[in-house]
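Hi R.,

As promised, here are both runs. First protein below:
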Amino acid sequence: MVKFESSLIIEIPFYDLDPMNVVWHGNYIKYLEAARCEMFKNLKYTYVDMKDEGIAYPIAKMDLKFIKSCRFAQKIKVTTLLEEIEPCIIIKYIITDEQTGECILKARSMQICINAESGESIHQAPERLKQIFEECKV
C-alpha cells in the first residue's frame, strides 16, 4: 500500500547520453536518487535530518526494469511511491515521458537503517519518521 507519493520533472542533459545517443543505463539510478531526495524533502525528513539523528539509510537492493530509452532534452517525470519504512524503506519508482505519459522505467529500492557511526543495522525506523509516515494519506 502506498503511503506517500512524490514526483520530480527532469530534463535529460546531453552529458547523460551514451555513444548511441540514448541515456546510458547507469544514469537512471541518478534520476531515481534525485526523485528520492525530493520525496524526503517533501516529507520534511531529509538525509540531513537522518545524519543529525545519527542514522543513515544506504541502498541494500535495487531492481530496475528498462522499458524504453530516454533521449537528449526529453522531459521525464520520476514518481516515487513510499510503501514501507519498517524494517526497511521500500520505494517504488516509475519514470514516464512528461508529455505523453509513456512508461520508460519501473524500479524498486530497499534501504536499511544503520547507525551512522558504527554501521550496525537498526531494525526500526526513527520515531520522527514513524510519526510522519503515520500522518501520510493514502
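And here is the second one, sequence first, then its C-alpha cells:
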Amino acid sequence: MLLRLASRNLWRNRRRTLLTLSAMVVSLALLTLSLGVFSGMLVDILSSTTEQYHGHLVINAQGYLDDRDMYLNFPSDPELLKRLQQDGEVIGSSERLRGFGLVSHKDRSYPAELLGIRPEMEKTVTKLHSQLIAGTFPSDADPNGAVLGSGLAKKLSVSPGDELVFVTQAADGSIGNDLLIVRAIFSTGHSGHDNSLILVPKAWLQQLMALEGKIHEIALAVRDPLRAAEDAQRLTSQLNDGLKATDWGELLPEMREAIASFDVSRFIFVVILYFATGLGILNTVFMSVMERTREFGILMALGMRPLQIRLIVLLECLLLGLLGTALGLVVGLLLSSYMALVGIDLSGWITPVTYAGGTIQPRLRAIFEQRNFIDPAYMLLLVSLLAGFLPARRAARLQPVAALRED
C-alpha cells in the first residue's frame, strides 16, 4: 500500500517531477561521460610513457637507474626470459641495451639516446611501431636499421634510406663509431622521445659498445598496469641476486601522484555536481509535502503512524532516484559509447601537452570502466534518499488536528 501511495503521489505534479527527473538524468549522464573521458585521458598519459618507452616494469642491475652507468649490465639469459614469458601476468618482454652519444648526418650532429632492441620483442612491450609517420619498422634480420623520433629526424634533415654516423664511448675504453640506415621515423607527441630517441638493433649496439651478450634491462608489459607495483615485488623475489624489478610508479613518481590524485578529483567532482542535484530533489519533495499537509493529516487521523508517513516520502524519493538512475545510465552509456568509438579530435586547435612525464593527446575519448557507472549510480540513489530525509521528517512530525486546518 505504501509503495502504491508513493508512486501515485510522485506523479501528482507531473511537470515538477519531470523537471527534477530531467536534472537527475542529465547529471548522471554527464557525470558518467566526464568520468569516462577523464579515464581516457589518464590511460593516454600513462600509455604515452609506459607503452612508448619505459614499459610497465623494467628489470635492471641494482643501481642502474640512478645514473644509467653502462657498466651496470648483466648477461642476456634465455632461461630468465622464458620464465618471465610463462608468468601469467606478463604479456610481453623485451631485452634492451642503452647507449648515449653523438649522431651525425652530413654537417649536422646532435646528441641522442640509442635503445638497442630486438624489433619483434619490442612490439610486445611498446607501441612505437604503430606510430610511424614514414618508412617501415625494421625486422630482427636488419643488421643496422634505425628508427628515429620525428624531432631528431627534422634536426638532422633525414628521411628513410639516409645514412647516419653514431659515435660513443665503448665499454673497453675505445671510441665506437659505425653507420646506421634510417628505416622509419616515429612521432609520439612526447618532446623527449621525438627529439632524442633512436631505436637500433641490439646486436649492432652490443658490438659497437663492446658489450657482447650484455643488456641493461628487460622491459615488461603486464595485464594490469595499475597493479604493476605488486608484480614488481613478486618478480624481484624470483630474480637472481643483483637484479631488481621496478614498476612505472617508481620510474615516474609524478605520474603515480597524478593517478593517485585522480580518485580525489573524481570524488570532488561528484560531490559538487550531486550537491546541486540534491538541492533540486529537496525542493521538489518539500513542495510536494507542503501541498499535501491536509492529506497527511487525514491519513494520520485514520490511524497511519508517523513512521509510515516518513516511509511514504522516502519511497517517493527512492522511486524518483531509481527512475533517474536507470534513465541516466542509459543516456550516459549512449554518450560514452559515442565518445569511445568516435571521440572528438582537437588537434586542429591544440597541440599535445606533456604532463607528469607523459603526454596528453589533443583528442577526447572515453573508455569503459565499471566504477565510472557504478559509483555515480549509487551516489545518485544516496543523494535522493538524503534529500528526502528532511521533508519526510517534517511530514512525520505533523499533528493531525493542525494539519487538517491547513489550507
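A quick note on the second one: The CA atoms of residues 80 and 240 lie 9 Å apart. Let me know what you think.

Best,
J.
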